[in-house]
Amino acid sequence: MTSSAPPPVPLQRLAGRRLALAIGALAVGGFAIGTTEFTIMGLLEEMRADLGVDYAQGGHVISAYALGVVVGAPVLATLGAKKPQRTVALALMLVITLANLSSFFASGFGWMLASRFLSGLPHGAYFGVAAVIAASLADPAKRGRAISMVMLGLSIANVVGVPFATWLGQQFGWRSMFLLVGLIGAGTLVLIRTLVPVVPVRAGASIRGELGALRRPQLWMTLLIGIVGFGGFFAVYSYISPVMTEVAGAGAALLPLVVALCGVGMVVGNILGGRLADKSILGSIYAVMATIAAVLLLFPLAAATPWSACLFVFLVGATGSTLIPPLQARLLDVSPGAPSLASSLNHSALNIANALGAALGGAVIAAGWGFTAPALVGAVLAVLGLGVAVLSGWLDRRGQDRAVAGDVASALRAG
To answer: For residue 345, what pLDDT is reported?
Structure first.
């Protein structure tokens, strides 16, 4: 008696309310991730004092999370290549939930450090898998928009989740933030299980196939666009507080509004980026990179007054966030055999951009160039990112021309 393999589950495209609910469920997970990633920065003093560590050790808690993102994104996405993507998303969200609950109960610095590293491991892989699921469920012509809606959860977290969780931590103890994220994570598990349909395993999916994408130069060039181009955003955002207080002359009471404005800009940019990606992926990357460079170049002039500085903080957030959906879509295109790995690596690249931007911004401030100098560094990075994007597009066209020439030559020989 022989047993036959079960028939493959057909891909179920969604539209309207069902698509919105499925993507919304995935976006709630992004909201939880964004909240836990950024809130700890605002509660660093409370955490440091409670655990009895100095500022350097407290900073290691933030670095541990970022390291987890960089390491976990490619590893977990590759290991999940042969599993149904909804199952992978559920497993990753379960790890996020348990890791945040572990942080809530952490009784010492070592435990907290390990918990934050564990929390970061699923970060990039979750967004990568969620983006692939959203692109699979939506109409191909609206793929960029679907990806941007998944990322919207992360952007909204900067506007709503981080301020609320920071307030909660100040009122009820810094650990309460982790309990909040754990509860949101548990809710996300229910939402994904209920609202997101099963996406069949891609034909030919394998760990070897996912790793094979690492041999593609266009994958690395796209990641480099994100690292260099988005590094400009972090060069400014990392030092926004001294810019507003020391250069623009704004009071410290205005800083929460400034952070919120940047978050609103990120929401707007994320939505706009999805729409632009659906029109032209490379064209939108070119336009966004040029706009980022222009905004950062003008930022030192705008920082002269509080209100013009606030306007440009919004623009910095908007232009930087607009870049993410086209990059995500580009990674899917240049790595058709490894969508999960390629999409996940985008978030490793963005965390490297975070470190790069903050380091270069701090270096020019330490050199005595002033608090607005990081914006000029960011403008240079954006121009470099644009250069990489143009080179990537030229290589695409060159490859297409060679393919056409080959087809013509074959036809002539056959004739």
So the answer is: 85
Dist CA 395 CA 159 (whole Å): 39
CA 40, 42, 48, 51 torsion-angle sign: negative
What tokens does 225 get?
């666009």
Own/partner contacts of 75-78, CB < 8 Å, gap of 24 or more, are: 75/121, 75/125, 76/121, 76/122, 76/125, 76/344, 77/124, 77/125, 77/128, 77/129, 77/210, 77/340, 77/341, 77/343, 77/344, 77/345, 78/207, 78/210, 78/211, 78/340, 78/341
Is residue 383 pLDDT above 50, yes or no? yes
In this model, does residue 7 exceed pLDDT 50? no
Between CA 303 and CA 369 the distance in angstroms is 15
Task: Tell me what percent of the residues of the chain surpass a pLDDT of 70.
Answer: 89
Q: Which residues contact 401 (CB under 8 A, 6 or more apart)?
A: none
Section 127-148 average pLDDT: 86
Each residue of 68-93: pLDDT tens digit? 888 888 888 888 877 888 999 999 99
Q: What is the pLDDT of residue 3?
A: 40
Integer angstrom CA distances of residue 397 from 28, 282, 394, 400, 402: 38, 12, 5, 5, 9
- This prediction has a pTM of 0.77
- The predicted-structure confidence for 316-350, as pLDDT tens digits, reads as follows 999 999 998 899 889 888 887 777 788 788 888 88
